[in-house]
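#onboarding

Welcome to the new folks! Below is a worked example of what a typical request in this channel looks like: someone posts a single protein sequence, and someone else replies with the predicted structure as tokens. Don't worry about understanding the tokens yet, we'll cover that in week two.

Example request:
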Amino acid sequence: GDGTVTHSLTGLTWQRCSVGQTWDPAFTACTGDVKTYTFDDAQKLTSNFAGQSDWRVPTIDELTTIVDTKRASPAINKAIFPQTPNNTFWASSVGAGTDDVWTVEFGNGSAFHGTYDKKTYPLTFRLVRGVPWIRTLDLKDFVDNRDGTVTHNKTGLTWQRCSVGQTWVDGGCDGKATAVTQTTAVALTSDLGGKTDWRLPTYRELQTIVDYSKASPATSLIIFPSTPSQLFWSATSASSNDSYAWFIDFSSGKGDIGVKGYNTDYNILGRNWNNNSARLVRGSLSTTTASAAASGNVDLAPTVTGTPSPAKVGGEITFTAALTNKGTGTASDTKLSFYIPKNLVTLVSKPTDCEDRGASVVCSLGYLVPQGSITRAVTVQMNKAGGLSFGVAGSSTEKDMTPKDNLARATVAIRK
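Example response:
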């Protein structure tokens, strides 16, 4: 009602009008002409609007969240952001290792930096406020499924770690990514990890594994080893022409559209795309909001089992624990703790993302989406005969709805 909107997905508040325009509440419209600024002048601009003074130019991560790939001219929801021009809009993000600046062209929604995005060019922009929303591929947010796949707790998606054509071998990706057309890529299937519902990701999903702070490739090589700095197809068709589809160039993170049927010697953005790649995904993109993650509605419930049972003195027991979020909000800074009775057992092994703290082993799991579950296991050697009660607990930054079920135990008999 005051010329601003708040996006529940990111928690950000946006000015509905581009800089230079004036909000008209009577007609729910933006009147007047947009103004253009150089990059440096845009960053210096201040605004006292709707009773707030902390407005700023959005990061590239933030600016792409208001692109609507189903629309064009402009590629945005005009009911939310009326009278948006088909202009190139500044972001505040600088390309990795360059003086080029990230922008979004709202004629078609493409995101890029390069020759046409020098800081001295006068361009349009829109202001935002709120906690900066930046996509970074934090290792704590990913679960290694030990089968060539990873699950991203922030999004709920499970990804193949290797590009199509590569093979997961000994913790890395062997071979060369296969060059495919988008028409071929969208029909790809796989049974990796015993699952058969693998598919080509949408453009929105593919954006979630881009790291705009990196280049060549613009993603994490720890999570996605041997990722080529090439174009990766998405399953999203262009709004203006169904013969085109959205892609992301992982040499820089640029997003644009290309002809579905071409994969050799086709010139886009001044480059011959002769190695168009693909990566498969499964699951559904979580729409859990940033505000829900912060406000609670988290319900962590661990379970734990010990095998073998009974065990022998001097033998090893593996305790496997699963932490499930039964709530409706995302848990952040989630931890799973194994309590180690040092007088009875000796720790033999633990996961690499877990820390031995003497009386406990604490696993930092990052985000845990609603109905999501993460499993970890530790192995101990038994020192005494009798009964062993082994406990695990779950915790997160948010207040738990039902804290009484945050602890679980497994009892194992120990024989001589």
